[in-house]
Design goal:
By secondary structure, the chain is mainly alpha-helical. It is 81% helix and 0% strand.
């Protein structure tokens, strides 16, 4: 065990805890706790939106998939994920910011009523299980690698989760925003220096690019068959659209000091994420050049350890400190956001419907208590799912919001004729069709013929249109009958 490296990591963790305690002294109400009092400048909105996506899968999952399957294997993340933030900035940020909402669930209540609010909020909360579990899994892996196996992955999960939980519970989104700001500086500087050092180890950036070209890793589009194209599109839209109705994205938009900052921060954050995601890809490609077949074997069998192994075996202590600082920054920034978001949604959009008389102080306490409970549940889930890949845990998280929550949001904002009935039918159609494509329900042949999440999304659009227009057509027909019979039209 390298005690100097461990000491630096411990000091870094203590520093973020100190920020959380400081931020906690500035929390006065639920608005401060949930969306930092709508006060953040552009630079902090950019760093916190960027930090939303730049997590464990970006550093350890995406690069390993890239060196195995090229750009085509990572269309979902970073391309879909980054485009999500750009779309949020261009088409959703200004409209939602002007409504002065605390959570994304508040939009569903105002537009469609409490039934849709509760259901969509529940779907959004459930979608966080896989995402948070992925970050906790990565924390366990990092602490296990850092201690050379002296700390088990399960113990590492518990220690890492507690390190994040404390400052989120105390400081809320204000602590998240400030730690994101610092952690993103550490991440960008650290990974950039490591990328330069990696290129030097590999004999120059040209050799790394040549490797990618030789292995045809730049191929983006799949074979031009209907099935392959359908699964390609489905992979892209899963995070691209399924992440739009997410509370953590919404919090970052609402925390901005004004609507223009909300819009620009999301767009810049999304573009930055797509571009900077290539840095860890470059580092892993360098590892393949330096380590040869052993790196590819790790990528296939235990890909989450490719980068840590490369850094620990081929780089000096300074680079190791930079790497683990950057890696922990990525994981902690994402996990803090994903612990806070579902907890605020639960209190605002579910608990308040069960206990409508709560005052602001009681809501603030409920939010903090819910974070602790949700964290405990996700920690147990992560331990139970140990062995599942980080990338798979993340990518499976967004399908439920894609088929259940996206269509009511986009149609509610952009289609005036969208109704509560339309939203109910949309949710029912989307979820039902999506479930039908599960191998356990519709069979292996159906699930392999067409992607279930894309089928569910299309069904949700059909449900919204049919459900919203059908009552109108029936009323028009009723009015027409009365008119023909010489009776006054029904009101």
């Amino acid at each position: 065990m390298n005690y100097t490296l461990v000491a630096f990591v411990v000091l870094y963790l203590l520093g973020t805890l100190a920020i959380g305690v400081w931020a906690g002294t500035r929390i006065k109400n639920t608005t401060d706790f949930a969306i930092a009092g709508r006060s953040l400048p552009l630079i902090m909105v950019v760093t916190t939106t960027f930090a939303t996506w730049f997590g464990a899968e970006t550093v350890m999952g995406i690069p390993a998939r890239f060196v195995q399957g090229g750009l085509n294997a990572i269309v979902e993340d970073p391309f879909g994920a980054g485009t999500c933030l750009i779309l949020v900035g261009l088409f959703f940020a200004t409209k939602l910011y002007k409504q002065n909402l605390l959570t994304i669930g508040d939009f569903y209540r105002q537009r469609y009523g409490r039934g849709i609010e509760v259901f969509c909020s529940a779907a959004i909360i459930l979608s966080y299980l896989g995402w948070v579990a992925a970050q906790i899994t990565a924390l366990g892996l990092v602490f296990s690698v850092l201690t050379n196996g002296a700390m088990s992955e399960t113990t590492g999960m518990v220690v890492g989760t507690l390190a994040v939980l404390v400052y989120v519970v105390i400081g809320g989104f204000l602590a998240v925003a400030w730690t994101d700001f610092i952690q993103m500086i550490v991440l960008v500087v650290g990974l950039t220096i490591i990328a330069i050092f990696s290129a030097d180890l590999a004999g120059g950036a040209g050799k790394v690019i040549d490797l990618a070209t030789h292995k045809e890793l730049w191929n983006f589009f799949p074979a031009p068959t209907l099935t392959d194209m359908a699964f390609f599109v489905a992979a892209g839209v899963t995070m691209m659209l399924g992440s739009i109705p997410q509370q953590d994205v919404f919090q970052r938009v609402m925390s901005a000091k004004d609507a223009n900052t909300a819009r620009n921060g999301a767009v810049i954050g999304g573009i930055s994420y797509i571009l900077f995601a290539f840095v860890p890809m470059f580092i892993v490609a360098s590892a393949v050049v330096v380590m040869g077949d052993s790196a590819m074997e790790l990528a296939k069998n235990d890909y989450q350890k490719v980068l840590p192994t490369f850094v620990l075996t081929k780089m000096p202590l300074v680079m190791q400190i930079l790497f683990f600082g950057a890696l922990l920054s990525a994981i902690k920034s994402t996990s803090s956001a994903t612990l806070l978001a579902p907890s605020t949604s639960f209190v605002e959009n579910i608990l308040k419907n069960l206990r409508p008389g709560m005052n602001d102080k009681q809501q603030l306490f409920a939010m903090r208590a819910t974070i602790v409970i949700f964290t405990s549940l996700v920690l147990a889930y992560a331990v139970a799912m140990k062995g599942t890949s980080i990338y798979d845990l993340v990518s499976s998280a967004y399908q439920v919001t894609l088929v259940g929550a996206f269509v009511p949001l986009v149609m509610g904002l952009y289609w005036k004729r969208a109704t509560t009935q339309g939203a109910i039918v949309s949710v029912a159609f989307g979820i039902a069709v999506w479930i039908l494509f599960f191998p356990q329900v519709g069979g292996e042949a159906l699930s392999k013929a067409f992607p279930g999440q894309l089928a569910g999304l299309l069904a949700a659009f059909v449900g919204m249109i049919v459900g919203s227009l059908a009552p109108q057509k029936l009323r028009n027909r009723h009015e027409h009958v009365h008119h023909v019979q010489g009776l006054p039209a029904a009101r």
